[in-house]
Each structure stands twice: as C-alpha cells, then as structure tokens.
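user: can you give me the structure for this one chain? tokens are fine.
assistant: on it. calling the predictor now.
[tool input]
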Amino acid sequence: MVHLLPPLTVGVVCDYAEEGWPSMDLAAELLVAGLREYAPGYEPAALRPRMPRVFGRAPGGRTGRNADRLLARHLAYPAWLRRNARGMDLYHEADHSYAHLVHALPAERTL
C-alpha cells in the first residue's frame, strides 16, 4: 500500500521508568511496537523523561522517594512535556494515573 501523506506522529506518554511499574511500562512499549508494526500511517515515539531525584537520596527511605514522585509527576513531567513534546500530531497517555499530564499537551490532539 502506498501512502501519499506523511505518517502521523504519535507521542505515547509513558510512566517514569524509575517508578518501577512493569505492567504499565509493558503496555506503553506494546502500544509503540503495535503502532510501528500494524499501523503504517502512524509513527509512534515513546515520551519518557528521567525522573529527577531530590529527596530520595536523603535518609528516611520511602518518605523521600514519595516526595520525589509527587514533585516529578506534578511539576517536572508537565514542564518537560511543554518543553520537549512539541510537534506531535497526536498524544496518548499510556497510564490513567498520569492523566493529569494531558493538561500540559494540546487538548485537540490528545487522546
């Protein structure tokens, strides 16, 4: 099949790998792989920054790690998307627990 139009770019917004949610990491990876293999009109790209660590290095264990997760999810990731995820035709949030990130993306192009 010949495509006369360029493929639509799809930014798949993934979880932070550092959070260690293997099932959601797999879901995002399979979505990207499936689009590459079965949807020739789409060009997917996984969007996944590194999670910043601020408090996780401090003594106290879980409290610091949870503070890092909160700051990373609600401040760092939206800011990263606004700076780095421009220019995609479509966006898809892979994990509903990251649904707040849709507010950092163009509403008319976000699924």
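assistant: here you go. The chain has one domain: 8-105. The radius of gyration is 16 Å.
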